[in-house]
Design goal:
Blueprint: E1 4-7, H1 19-25, H2 32-49, H3 56-70, H4 77-84, H5 96-105, E2 109-114, H6 122-128, E3 134-139, H7 150-160, E4 167-171, H8 174-183, E5 186-190, E6 206-208, H9 211-222
Helix pairs in contact: 2-3, 5-9, 7-8
C-alpha cells in the first residue's frame, strides 16, 4: 500500500488524438503529431541533461514552427498558438475518472506531475470530473529538471511530505517509469496499447491495462 499516487499527464491521463485535428487545420499531416511530441521530449531531455531548463511551451512552439517551415507553411504565432491551445481541451481516457475515483476512495492521495505547465490541464481535469481528487497539480518549473531527472520526482515527494518509497508513479511512458524507479518510487506501467515493455528500462512494479485495473489492485491491498 502506498500513500501517494503520482500521475503523469500527457498520454497517461489525456487522449492526445484530437490534436491531430489541429495539425490538419494548420496544414500539417495528422501523423506529424508523433514526430512533434517526440521531438519535444527529446530536446527537453537533452537540455535537462546539460543543466538547462526549457519550458514545455517554448520548446513546443519552436519545434512546431520549424515543422511548419519544413512543410512550406507560414509559422505564424496564431497558427502555433491554435495548436498549442489544444492541450487545454483534451479529453481524458475513458478509464481515468472511474479508476481514480476508486483510488481516492481507497484513501490514496493523488497528485499529477508533468513536464508541461500544470495550468494547461486544469480545465481538462475539471471537465473530466477529477479535479477535486487531485491534492496537488505539479510541474517541473520549480526543480527546473524535466522528468526523468530524479529531482522532479523528489520535488513531488517534498511537496507531499512523504518519503519517495511511499509514492508510486503511474505512466504510459517507459522512460518515466525508469526515472521514477531510479529515484526510489514504486512504479505502475499503464499499458493500454499492449506494448511490450523495453528491457533496457527498469521493470515496473505493476503493469495494468488501465486505471480501473490499477484501482482494483489498490483496493485489494487496502483490505
Amino acid at each position: 500500500m502506498i500513500d501517494v499516487l503520482v500521475l503523469d499527464v500527457n498520454e497517461t491521463l489525456t487522449d492526445m488524438e484530437p490534436l491531430r485535428d489541429a495539425f490538419e487545420a494548420a496544414g500539417l499531416p495528422r501523423h506529424g503529431l508523433e514526430e512533434w511530441f517526440t521531438a519535444i521530449l527529446r530536446d527537453g531531455f537533452a537540455l535537462t541533461a546539460v543543466g538547462a531548463y526549457p519550458t514545455f511551451r517554448d520548446l513546443a512552439a519552436e519545434l512546431l514552427a520549424a515543422q511548419l517551415v519544413a512543410a512550406g507553411l507560414d509559422p505564424s504565432p496564431e497558427t502555433v498558438g491554435n495548436v498549442l491551445s489544444g492541450f487545454t481541451r483534451l479529453p481524458l481516457h475513458p478509464d481515468v475518472a472511474p479508476g481514480l475515483h476508486k483510488v481516492h476512495e481507497a484513501g490514496v492521495r493523488i497528485v499529477t506531475l508533468t513536464n508541461g505547465a500544470a495550468a494547461m490541464s486544469e480545465n481538462v481535469f475539471r471537465n473530466g470530473g477529477i479535479l477535486p481528487l487531485l491534492e496537488h497539480r505539479l510541474d517541473v518549473s520549480v526543480p527546473q529538471r524535466w522528468k526523468p531527472h530524479p529531482d522532479a520526482y523528489r520535488y513531488a515527494a517534498e511537496v507531499c511530505g512523504v518519503p519517495v518509497e511511499r509514492m508510486a508513479l503511474a505512466a504510459v511512458h517507459p522512460w518515466d517509469i525508469d526515472g521514477a524507479a531510479r529515484a526510489g518510487l514504486r512504479t505502475v506501467y499503464v499499458d493500454r496499447r499492449k506494448t511490450p515493455y523495453p528491457h533496457v528500462f527498469r521493470t515496473p512494479d505493476l503493469t495494468v491495462p488501465d486505471f480501473e485495473a490499477l484501482a482494483e489492485s489498490v483496493q485489494e491491498k487496502a483490505k
